User: Fold this.
Amino acid sequence: MATLRRLREVPRHLLVCEKSNFGHDKSRHQRLVETHYYNYRVSFLIPECGILSKELKSLVMGTGPYYFVKNLPLHELISHEFINTFVKKGKLILSLDKDTYEETGLQGRPSQYSGRKIMKFIISIDLMDLSFNPDSKNCKRTSWSFKEKKPLKFDFLLAWHPTGAEESTMMSYFSSYQIQEHQPEIALSTLMDLPCPVLQSHALQGVPEAACSAQELFDWLGAVFSHINLNNEPNNFISTYCCPQPSTVVSKAYLCTVTGFLLPEKISLLLEQLRRYFNEPKLAPWVSLSVQGFADSPVSWRENEHGFRKGGEHLYNFVIFNNQDYWLQMAVGANDDCPT
Assistant:
């Protein structure tokens, strides 16, 4: 009975919706994108569009590369040379089980999602402090821990936004290890005769019989990105989901999905270009940009601890209207703080 009861328990999920305008001084769209570091997938949907503009296509094709390094010693990421070459600011954040944490001999804090019996710890290392104070006691102890006391090795995905240096630097820097360069996977498709919710930019909660809500749109986008049939046909035993009402049928819609390790800087450029989509008159009243984070990343936004044992989702979605209003939707799972 206890097992059955646990299976019936639904993990907590949180969806935060808000509306603003890109022209507002207090709009936080840029900050939100910049501080969501571990991006696994980005999708954008453009109703009443059959072909991608040259500008958007160029940005999509330029979302890579990223790198896979096998068995990389952790001490390489705290070396003075690595920090000076690749890091302008930032921290190394480790999420460790109890035994590994104690073996490092470093100071951290219990995970806020450990429960009564603490089995997980978080270590946060300020890389700028190590770089500027290489002879400090803290720097020497951290280096000793990773090189001698507990020499940890991991498989890493690495991505870097160069600011003037050669793109090939990361390949050459880690040439003594097993490193592979990867390009994101890109999927482009045109959806024909797509049932599409009617939206009003000022009505986040929707208007009865006039406009759908942000929650209804969020669910609908999930169905579209998952390529679910929205017709609710009686012989469809896979899904009974249908487009929320009121709706309209768009003759075609362009869907682009990019999967890999995607930098916030690249996503910011995509968001900016989608804003410019309405610089000229368009049939579409809105477009959407959805970003999904890695389920097992150590943080969601900023330094907010992220847990993945009960889902692992952390994602956001922009609905961009033709008057430069936007809806922002942020979703997290059971082991996350409210993304506000």
In short: The CA atoms of residues 38 and 297 lie 7 Å apart. Residues 137-149 form the longest helix (13 residues). The radius of gyration is 23 Å.
